Amino acid sequence: MAPRRSLALLLSAGGALLLAAWPAAGPLQAQVQVQRQPAGKATEPDSRSYVGTWALTDNRNNLFNVRLLPGGRAVSTVGTEGVPSAGASRLGATQIRELGRWQPWGNGVRVDYGNSWTDWIYVGPEGFSHAAWQPGQNRGSVPFNFGPAVKLSGIEADVVGVYSLAPAQTELKPYTAVLLSNGQAFNDIDNRSGGVWKLKGSTVVIDWISGWRSSLSLDPATPLRLRHWAPGSDRNGPPSGGDRQGRRIE
Among 81, 131, 166, 236, which has the minimal tally of Cβ within 10 Å of its Cβ? Predict the structure, then answer.
């Protein structure tokens, strides 16, 4: 874990916001300049460097992931702060994901979510970094929390994210499931909503603490084909309810 750092705000004569970052008990190391965006000015996202999946942490060092999509869309898995230990109870959809929009901002990108949180992913003195402002906080003030930002790559980047999955029971509506880059999984259908996932070949296998097992195909021939096995059923036998379908939430 990167050492916690102190932040100070300086205003230049030209009105630009300067974030000065230094160790809590050490000398000034670097300054990161953030140019304020003119009010009402639309800016096209820079898809060349920031589109993709990111691993970030909240103010209690809980992991969450953010997918930045072309065109400015963003999907965030909500950090586990406030989520019952191991997902031991039912969760609402807003507890496990949030939708937002992103745009270039300063020396990085700013993500504004529907719940009024803001993430900023930027290049700092230690490489990619992350800062966040909570609802009601002035975006020109010291961020609520900050830490490292890691851009995921390979199969992990393809798997991590938020999905809409059809349950085995045809009378039930699709539910939301999230797969985090640390192997955790959560859903909003089970009374005990936590789980873990792992990759077996081209299939994501999710074992829920409710006793259900789900598998999600990454094979291009069967994209996001979904199968479920009920608690106590033979995992090598036919799936409960037959083949279902999943889709990634964008």
Answer: 236
Coil, helix or strand at residue 114: coil
**Domains detected in the chain:** 5-152 (2.40.128), 158-248 (2.40.128)
**Using CA atoms, how far apart are residues 170 and 227, in angstroms rounded to an integer?**
13
To which residue do tokens 């036919």 refer? 238
DSSP state of 159: H
d(CA 157, CA 126): 22
| Helix, coil or strand: residue 164 | strand
For the whole model, what pTM was predicted?
Answer: 0.76
Residue 35: how many other CB atoms lie within 10 Å? 13
Residue with tokens 């949030």: 98
**Are β-strands 98-105 and 73-76 bridged in parallel, bridged antiparallel, or unpaired?**
antiparallel
How many other β-carbons are positioned within 10 Å of the β-carbon of residue 169? 12
Amino acid (1-letter code) at residue 48: R
pLDDT tens readout for residues 126-159? 899 999 999 999 999 999 999 999 999 998 898 9
**Cβ-based burial of 129 (10 A; exposed 0-12, middle 13-18, buried ≥19):** buried
